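Researcher: Quick test of sequence recovery. Tokens follow.
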């Protein structure tokens, strides 16, 4: 590994095996949701669920199939914690499991999370209230209609997690909007970069964008950095 920054990321973030107490809080929430068989109407603005096409889904099914796994949720937690990200944006709240990891990673942070489906947003709000989170603001509505105004109210983005829509043009549109508010230390994580041909194409465009200095492909997620110490583009594929 010739990049000191990426070597540091691998050894101190990816391979950090410490069990943080915050993990227990989020995984108890996940456990509760996996046992919740309430059925709700889901309005999907993106490519849709790969599991359920009816529009009606059980909360347990969403928790099982739509939420990020413990492994990746905790990786995002460690990234925010290690790099001390303070202004955090999430596109795709779902039930709030990943949002909770992002929130707990830095108590001083401000997390703005966006969710298109009203019923899911309502459940996420309930979860945040139950856990007593004070640093999360949830924005309800279609990202295509809400993201620009959110960006106008955020001075800068330290960490962004894009987990919504899963189609080429919207994904690129969200990325292009977010990078207007980044700095050299910002991190953007794109979910499901190999989920479909559309997402494969979007990932290729994003990692080759002129502003991106380094990309890391972890298969299920792609991470891009904009740090000035990279004098030329570097792309890495790492098994995780």
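Model:
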């Amino acid at each position: 590994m010739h990049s000191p920054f990426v070597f540091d990321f691998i050894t101190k973030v990816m391979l950090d095996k410490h069990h943080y107490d915050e993990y227990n809080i989020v995984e108890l929430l996940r456990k509760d949701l996996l046992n919740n068989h309430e059925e709700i109407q889901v309005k999907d603005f993106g490519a849709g669920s790969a599991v359920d096409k009816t529009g009606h889904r059980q909360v347990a099914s969403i928790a099982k199939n739509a939420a990020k796994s413990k492994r990746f949720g905790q990786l995002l937690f460690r990234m925010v914690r290690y790099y001390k990200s303070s202004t955090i944006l999430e596109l795709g709240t779902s039930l709030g499991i990943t949002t909770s990891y992002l929130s707990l990673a830095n108590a001083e942070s401000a997390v703005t999370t966006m969710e298109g489906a009203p019923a899911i947003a309502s459940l996420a709000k309930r979860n945040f209230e139950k856990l007593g989170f004070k640093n999360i603001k949830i924005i309800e509505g279609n990202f295509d209609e809400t993201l620009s105004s959110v960006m106008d109210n955020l001075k800068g983005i330290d960490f962004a997690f894009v987990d919504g829509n899963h189609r080429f043009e919207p994904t690129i549109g969200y990325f292009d909007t977010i990078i207007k508010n980044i700095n050299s230390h910002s991190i953007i994580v794109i979910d499901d970069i190999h989920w479909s041909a559309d997402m494969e194409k979007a990932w290729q465009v994003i990692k080759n964008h002129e502003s991106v200095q380094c990309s890391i492909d972890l298969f299920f997620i792609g991470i891009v950095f904009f740090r000035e110490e990279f004098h030329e583009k570097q792309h890495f594929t790492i098994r995780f």
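The mean pLDDT is 93.
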